[in-house]
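This section describes the prediction task in plain terms. A model, or a person checking by hand, is given the sequence of a single protein chain and must write out its three-dimensional structure as a string of tokens. No templates, partner chains or ligands are provided. The sample shown here is typical of the held-out split.
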Amino acid sequence: MTFVYPTAPTADLAGKILLVPIVSTANVAQLAADLLIATLELQQIAILDPTYCIPVVGGREDGLHGITTPIEPHILFYGKSRKQEFTDALLGFAQTSQFSAVLFLSGMDLSNRTDAQMLTPKYQLRLPQHKSSLEGTPLQNLERLPIPAYRSPPSPGSSEENTAIPFIPGGGLTRRTLNSIPSEWAIPTASLLQFVLEGDNAADAALLASVTAKVIDLNITPGEWKEPSSWKAGLFGSPHDQTLYG
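The expected answer:
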């Protein structure tokens, strides 16, 4: 089954870094992706197979021609019964496209932090085969930046001390996806995780986007982030008509 449907002249993805925002707590990963796309003025090059998702469509950013689909890069509403199918298709896409690295972005439920995790909201999580070093790869900045490795206590009712990928509270498909990567996987891969609370998460998104930019060597300072126009009405809805209140 075809997973990728190009919408622009064929782009060579070999050697590029794939950023995957996972639907998770506060949608902070999608909001961070919004900032990266708007600031870097990235262009859509394809739509991924939406059959794994709840069927929804919407308008495109800034009135551009066409429609937005559920798996087109910002927000993914996946069907619960097809989680593993989607995960396998996504990993297959990463391999066949010959990306030089894969970086997953995910939010985590702030209420599940341990005492030891109170000092910073951001963490990194690597595959077992990449824990020793990422030097010489597009993700080598993870070796230098002050981003601690993520560790989690066992999830309720289970024992996970020996689990390679720990429990990620509110992390959506992050753990399933990382657990689905085979041991022979050669693409440098890691995940950036950030503890957040549901609410106005624009600042959280800017933090996650800034950390992402530093990891993959994008020269963007925190004050340079450009919010997409859809945030003006689409993020929290249109303002109420004040005449309703007299």
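For orientation: Strands lie at 4-6, 17-21, 46-48, 58-59, 67-68, 101-109, 122-126, 189-196.
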